Amino acid sequence: MSLALFVTATYLFTPYILNYDMVVFGFVVALLRERADNAMRDHWLLIAMWTLPVTMMFAGAIGIPLAPIVLIAFACWLLRRLAQGDRSEVRALQEATALAPG
């Protein structure tokens, strides 16, 4: 998840985002879709990321900057998932120390 956030942040801070540069997201999305804890809305966001290289061409032709919108939503989703994972790890550690004898 943190590597996916790194790749996404790289594209967010690049001054020019072109559709052929986004091939990397195909691999990122393929790895993230394998996770068992994805909800249906997570799959829709991942599909939006996967189709972004094609859809951004059509949206750009009519003047809609689609890529930054989808990339920001994806980065926020990754940050939320990373925060949830950290909380569950802290909770498991607290439970383990509470059960430990001593």
> What class, by secondary structure content?
mainly alpha
Element order: H for helix, E for strand: HHHH
What's the shape?
Answer: elongated
Radius of gyration: 17 Å
Q: What oligomeric state do the depicted chains represent?
A: single chain
Strand content: under 5%
Total helical elements? 4
Compute the average pLDDT.
84
Euclidean distance between termini CA atoms: 36 Å
Low-confidence parts: none
Q: What is the total tally of β strands?
A: 0
Provide the helix percentage: over 70%
The major pleated sheet works out as:
none
Quick overview:
This protein is mostly helical and 102 residues long. 75% of the residues lie in helices and 0% in strands.
Descriptive overview:
- The chain is mainly α and 102 residues long.
- It has four helices and no strands.
- The protein has helices at 2-12, 24-33, 40-61, 66-99.
- Helix 1 runs antiparallel to helix 4 and helix 3 packs antiparallel against helix 4 (66-99).
- It is elongated, with a radius of gyration of 17 Å.
- The protein starts with a helix and ends with a helix.
List strands and helices in order, with pairings.
Layout: H1 2-12, H2 24-33, H3 40-61, H4 66-99
Helix pairs in contact: 1-4, 2-3, 3-4
